[in-house]
């Protein structure tokens, strides 16, 4: 059993109203893998970097149980680079630079040992690359989660819809859900998107939390209100990593596990944004995670006893 | 024991991208009183109207157990009128007209039987009027809740701060919390506002739910994602009415009751916005409220057992 993670491994330069960092460790697959390993140690990474990405970071990942056989290293080339600037509200950002570098002609090759992965997390990438990964699998995974973004809706909608028809769960933000569905109401948007393939939909609303849609049920995981948000970069990927890491550990994707996974993912994301880059995640202790989960319980727990079916909540 | 409600009783004209209504029943105290009566029937209303406000609506209120002795009716004058237009996202609105009419020289006079009210809800009004109400009370209420808005922060901050120093709980929206405190982080904003007088702070975030701050604790009540929002007018007041109505009924303001009150208020608000004006609230059944509360339980319930102290949750 393993968790296959596909996505970017990159450098980021990040400016916020409160500080900035240059060429730090970033990339969707980096955040996803790190977050997942707190729950599940058999992660198999597929990505591409240049020989400029620090070898110590690769060792770090390996030490966390991440198999990097599928991480292609291109000699003499540069890793994917993103530069962004957050606005005063920390909720919106402008991209200042996107240098694809090694990503421009990335062809994901799955090592033999990856091809029967039971859990698959497709980080945000060209839909065609996501498809290429799915095509190489020799057994249908128990759960395929896909992340994407508005850019692919603008330039590659047919491919995006093809991937969508093959996955179990889609994670996107609220604006993207509206764009993909053409519906303003998130309930209507979710109903439309669930008809495109996935059985589950997670709509991420940043500081306003995240919604899980499944059949006629909706579950809401709030974001924890924080004293300071230092750097929102990677929050969505950290959420996804905690989410699928918890499910892989449980090896159970029933709705009640999905709900719990939403909280585990949200807890990881709330920790991630308290420092730049992966600084907080890379030094996290088990106790810090338990404390944070506890804060989520306190934030949401109330006791109204109605005709709610407690069997629902095994 | 009684619940004193002070606020506007008015006419509204409302435009949304999906429809419009002209000169319908509105006003903060109308929404608050109606919502409160589903939990608690001894409501005492203080407000002012012209003789154009429909007498049948006054009878309606009385039939719900609302004492209207404190409702001044000015012969030959017009009731307060507000006209607004919601933008496409239904989250922001523009005020097209505000005709103060009878509100221009409103002096709230508390009938003798109102002066020992145990629960007091100060709807959004000039801070000086809110103060005048508090001055007439002959016994300190168990709970004074105050609503206000950014306009009073712009034009009457000293009076606003004076009222604030005398109340137990303030309800405002997120932008107003930032304006009042000068802090962007809602956690920091709450800490600053709790030093201005109130023991409790509710920050309303519209479709993104509401936060309750008390000492070092935060509780979050989500908004229920809805298929269609028809008219957000009065949602905040309906929340406040359900909130304080539930507390008055329980006659218990401990934190656990406050948390439950947040959910009761949110349930009432979610019902309110499904129709224009008070249409839904005025025809609501007990079963509809129970069903809605049940939806809130389903929306938020998950079972992670950690070291959360269950005594917290009496």
How would you sum up this structure in a few lines?
Two copies of one chain form a homodimer. The first copy, chain A, is α/β, with parallel strands linked by helices and 314 residues long. Helices cover 35% and strands 25% of the residues of chain A.
The low-pLDDT segments of chain A are 308-314
Beta-strand proportion of chain A? 25-35%
- Under the CATH scheme, which architecture of chain A would be assigned? 3-Layer(aba) Sandwich
- Radius of gyration of chain A equals 18 Å
CATH topology of chain A: UDP-N-acetylmuramoyl-L-alanine:D-glutamate ligase
The top-level CATH class of chain A is Alpha Beta
| Physical arrangement of strands within the biggest beta sheet of chain A | 5-4-1-8-9-10-11-12-13
N-to-C CA distance of chain A? 24 Å
N-to-C series of helices and strands of chain A: EEEHEHEEEEHEHHEHHEEEHHH
What count of domains describes the coordinates of chain A?
1
Tell me about this structure.
With 314 residues, chain A is of the alpha/beta class. The first copy, chain A, has one domain: Ribokinase (UDP-N-acetylmuramoyl-L-alanine:D-glutamate ligase). Chain A is 35% helix and 25% strand. The first copy, chain A, has ten helices and 13 strands. The first copy, chain A, has helices spanning 28-37, 55-63, 127-136, 150-155, 157-164, 174-181, 186-194, 235-250, 255-272, 286-300, and strands at 3-6, 10-16, 19-26, 43-50, 66-74, 80-86, 93-99, 119-122, 143-147, 169-173, 200-204, 210-214, 217-221. In chain A, the strands form two sheets. In chain A, strands 5-4-1-8-9-10-11-12-13 form a nine-stranded mixed β-sheet, with helices on both faces. In chain A, strands 3-2-6-7 form a four-stranded mixed β-sheet. In chain A, a hairpin with a 6-residue loop joins strand 6 (80-86) and strand 7 (93-99). The two termini of chain A are 24 Å apart. Residues 308-314 of chain A have low confidence and may be disordered. The interface between A and B is large, with 44 and 45 residues.
């Amino acid at each position: 059993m393993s968790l296959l993670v596909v996505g970017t491994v990159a450098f980021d330069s990040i400016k916020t109203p409160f500080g900035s960092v240059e060429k730090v460790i970033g990339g969707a697959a980096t955040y996803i893998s790190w977050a997942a390993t707190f729950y599940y140690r058999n992660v198999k990474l597929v990505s591409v970097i240049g020989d400029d990405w620090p070898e110590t970071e690769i060792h770090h990942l390996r030490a966390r149980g991440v198999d990097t056989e599928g991480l292609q290293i291109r000699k003499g080339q540069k890793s994917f680079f993103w530069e962004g600037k957050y606005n005063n509200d920390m909720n919106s950002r402008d991209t200042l630079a996107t240098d694809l570098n090694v990503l421009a002609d990335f062809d994901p090759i799955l090592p033999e040992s990856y091809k029967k992965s039971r859990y698959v997390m497709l980080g945000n990438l060209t839909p065609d690359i996501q498809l290429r990964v799915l095509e190489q699998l020799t057994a249908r995974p128990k759960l395929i989660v896909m992340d994407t973004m508005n850019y692919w809706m603008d330039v590659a909608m047919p491919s995006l819809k093809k991937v969508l028809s093959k996955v179990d769960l889609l994670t996107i933000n609220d604006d993207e859900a509206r764009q993909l569905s053409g519906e303003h109401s998130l309930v209507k948007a979710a109903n439309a998107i669930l008809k495109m393939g996935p059985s589950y939909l997670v709509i991420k609303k940043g500081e306003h939390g995240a919604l899980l849609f499944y059949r006629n049920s909706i579950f809401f995981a709030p974001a924890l209100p924080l004293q300071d948000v230092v750097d929102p970069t990677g929050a969505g990927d950290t959420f996804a990593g905690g989410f699928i890491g918890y499910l892989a550990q449980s090896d159970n994707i029933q709705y009640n596990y999905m709900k719990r996974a939403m909280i585990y993912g949200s807890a990881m994301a709330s920790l991630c944004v308290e420092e730049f880059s992966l600084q907080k995640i890379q030094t996290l202790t088990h106790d810090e995670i338990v404390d944070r989960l506890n804060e989520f319980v306190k934030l949401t727990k109330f006791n109204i006893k109605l005709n709610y079916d407690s069997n629902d909540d095994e």
